[in-house]
Amino acid sequence: MTDRLVDRRLFGRSGLLLAALGLASGAKAAETARPAHRVALQISVNDPALMNLALTNVTNIAEHYAGTGESVAVDLTAFGPGYAMMRADVSPVRERIAALQARFPFVTFSACQNARRAVAASEGKTASEIPQIAQARDVPAGVVHLSELQEAGWSYLRP
């Protein structure tokens, strides 16, 4: 074998080893960056009492893990009639949501865009004419979003 061929083979193997080590360290970093606890909740009814119960559950989860020092991610998804929770014009809990997210930035509020379009159609508007709270993060379909979170290992609660 020529020295060049040996150099290429050695470099190729070393390159593969370095790439594998890089991938392993990247996977390790991603694993440590993932919160220790991930909790998904839903609200699917337009009922202020249930909306407040869901927010109380979110608060209890957030305060518990803040007290233990363990990391947590919380996602509250509103879909169907529960989408009213995410509407800036009619939400009975918009101030509470703003205060909660300001206090606990690891809490996400997901707003189903299927529900937004349905509400818009029933009111003779476009979806963009239905104002959402600033904290809302759009998801195409709330039920799909929750299903995917569960598939990814999130705990699921329904108030």
Walkthrough of the structure:
The protein is α/β, with parallel strands linked by helices and 159 residues long. It has two domains: 1-33; 35-157, Hypothetical Protein Ychn, Chain: A. It has five helices and five strands. It has helices spanning 3-33, 48-68, 94-103, 113-122, 142-151, and strands at residues 37-43, 72-78, 107-112, 136-139, 155-157. Strands 4-3-2-1-5 form a five-stranded parallel sheet, with helices on both faces. Helix 2 (48-68) links the parallel strand 1 (37-43) and strand 2. The radius of gyration is 22 Å and the shape is globular.
Number of strands: 5
CATH topology of the largest domain: Hypothetical Protein Ychn, Chain: A
CATH homologous superfamily label of the largest domain: DsrEFH-like
Average pLDDT value? 86
Give the tally of structural domains: 2
Regarding quaternary structure, what we see is single chain
Q: Please list the strands of the largest sheet in the order they lie side by side.
A: 4-3-2-1-5
Show unreliable segments.
Answer: 4-31
